Amino acid sequence: MRDSVGSVRSVLLLGGRSEIGLAIVERLVREGAREVVLAARGGVSSTPDALTGLGAAVHSVDFDAGLPDTHTGTVAEAVALVGDLDVVVAAFGVLGEQSEYEADPAAAARAAAVNYTGHVSAGLAVAARLREQGHGTLVVLSSVAGVRVRRSNFVYGSAKAGLDGFAQGLADSLHGSGARVLVVRPGYVPTRMSAHVEPAPFPATPGQVADAVSSGLRSGATTVWAPRVLQPLFTGMRLMPRALWRRLGR
User: Which strand (E) or helix (H) includes residue 211?
Assistant: First the structure.
């Protein structure tokens, strides 16, 4: 439960090794969170020093985005460890190479399952718990790649487009329950996952994404962009003629 100054006590990170996810969790711990659950495939073997050094109790649970039948159990396990979940950060996914997906449709389908359907089952499991609690926020890491899908990464982008739409619908379904969803739309963020991708204009660091999330949680926003300049930029891109977009999206 949020305390008298609005800080959160407990955080669950789905995608416990995500650099962006960990940056968000660290920011929340700096602001007062004291119970953290890191959920990743096989669990997280080593606890980040940045979290324990700030006084947080850090727990680890198993989470596999590709096994939707286990997601309700993962949420229940986290609740058993820390009680009510004040913030849940859904930061799991894979990027991959578009050319490899086109050469291997089965690999493309597996990636899409992680990036979209894994979030559907996990998001619904989290929402059920938050609705039962009557409070809490699910933070969903979407992407500008889903705002208007480009030819150069349309497998990834289309999954993010689906995720973004799902998150908005889930937010509407929680309206009036005391629980809510915060959709995060970062641009290019240099991390291990994106190391093979050519840098794009207006990049953001994991810390800047964490700042945007923290601000959004405090203000009650439904959507945040990182950096903010991407919001008007992509508003215009949505209106761009398809022939021109096709040329730009190569």
Answer: helix 206-219
